[in-house]
Specification:
The protein is an alpha/beta fold and about 300 residues long. It has one domain (about 5-304): Rossmann fold. The protein is about 40% helix and about 15% strand. It contains 10 helices and 9 strands. The chain has helices spanning about 20, 30-35, 45-60, 70-80, 100-115, 135-140, 140-170, 190-215, 245-250, 295-304, and strands at about 5, 40, 60-65, 90, 120, 170-175, 220-225, 265, 270. The chain has a 9-stranded mixed β-sheet with strand order 1-9-8-7-6-5-2-3-4, with helices on both faces. Strand 7, helix 9 (about 245-250) and strand 8 (about 265) form a beta-alpha-beta unit. Helix 2 (about 30-35) crosses helix 3 (about 45-60), helix 5 (about 100-115) packs parallel to helix 7 (about 140-170) and helix 7 packs parallel to helix 8. The protein is globular and about 50 Å long.
């Protein structure tokens, strides 16, 4: 992991109750553009996914939120309304994303709601199941399969379900949430490390393949490490899950010509992974250079 570049001045302690005022650090133009977007958020019943969904609702986006528990998704809808969001624009679509058939059904429903989808934020994931001190040597294969199904396969299948529609509309914004574990080899959590390293590779590989298949579309598929915060998986942290919102919104709202297949940390650092170098310019800067075919998209983006 390398962090030789950064998007500076990322404030991580915005109070969500004032989201419509501070806009989580976004400019007025970017905030307004998010309000015209249509997003699918997975893992949106709690933690990071809930925080991102609430922030997008505050911006006025049309949102579908998914997770296994409908009662948790309904809590997100109520929280968004309490914090000034548009509850009428949030649709819960419960689904067990470890099951391909459930993903197919959810994606079909999402496509009916988000006729012109703008992006996806993949927050769904599970911790490593209990498998003793040597899980790579002792874990039951069924445990491995469920871990990979949730942390890797779900992101792949949900992304490819909506990518054709996003590309046809001219742009796609996808953010995969990863973990520092994806860069490490800590004994005892090897399967989880592998799952997050796989997310890293999935994000950059999907970004490259999608950009090659749809060269005239503005493809921005990136990976974000949210760090640690107070979630169901980490009750001991004092950090708010809203700490990840500013960088997530910067990626979702970036104009054409921005990063694709790159890695970022919630505090603004730009990371490298394997052969992928850190993105060289701030997400706040005017993007450069645009790929062939993006000049017309840029014009449309500026006009709204």
């Amino acid at each position: 992991m390398n962090d030789t570049a950064a998007s500076t001045h990322i404030k991580q302690d915005h109070l969500p109750k004032d989201g419509t005022s501070h806009r989580y650090g976004l400019s007025h133009d970017r905030w307004t553009r998010l309000g015209k977007g249509a997003f699918w958020i997975t893992g949106a019943g709690t933690g990071y996914g809930q925080a991102v969904a609430v922030a997008l609702a505050q911006a006025g986006s049309t949102i579908v939120i998914s997770g296994r528990r409908i009662e948790k998704l309904q809590e997100t809808v109520r929280l968004a309304a309490d914090l000034g969001g548009r509850p009428d624009a949030i649709t819960p679509v419960p689904a067990d994303l470890t099951e391909p058939s459930a993903i197919d059904a959810a994606a079909a429903h999402v496509s009916e709601i988000l006729v012109h989808p703008t992006g996806i934020v993949h927050c769904a994931g599970v911790p490593q199941p209990a498998a003793g001190p040597w899980p790579l040597l002792d874990m039951d294969p069924s445990q491995w399969d469920r871990l990979m199904a949730s942390n890797v396969r779900a992101g792949w299948l949900t992304s490819r379900a909506l990518l054709p529609a996003m590309a046809a509309a001219g742009q796609a914004r996808i953010v995969f949430f990863t973990s520092t574990a994806g860069w490490h080899d800590t004994p005892g959590v090897g399967p989880y490390n592998v799952s997050k390293a796989s997310v890293n590779s999935l994000g950059t590989s999907l970004a490259a393949e999608t950009a090659a298949r749809y060269p005239d579309a503005d493809i921005q598929i990136n990976v974000l490490d949210p760090g640690e915060a107070r979630t169901e998986m980490n009750q001991g942290s004092k950090a708010s899950p809203y700490s990840v919102v500013p960088m997530t919104l910067l990626l979702l709202s970036h104009p054409p010509g921005g990063p694709n297949g790159r890695f970022f940390f919630r505090d603004g650092r730009h990371l490298s992974f394997a052969a992928t170098e850190a993105y060289p310019t701030s997400l706040r800067d005017k993007p450069f250079p645009m790929r062939k075919g993006l000049s017309n998209i840029m014009g449309k983006w500026m006009k709204g």
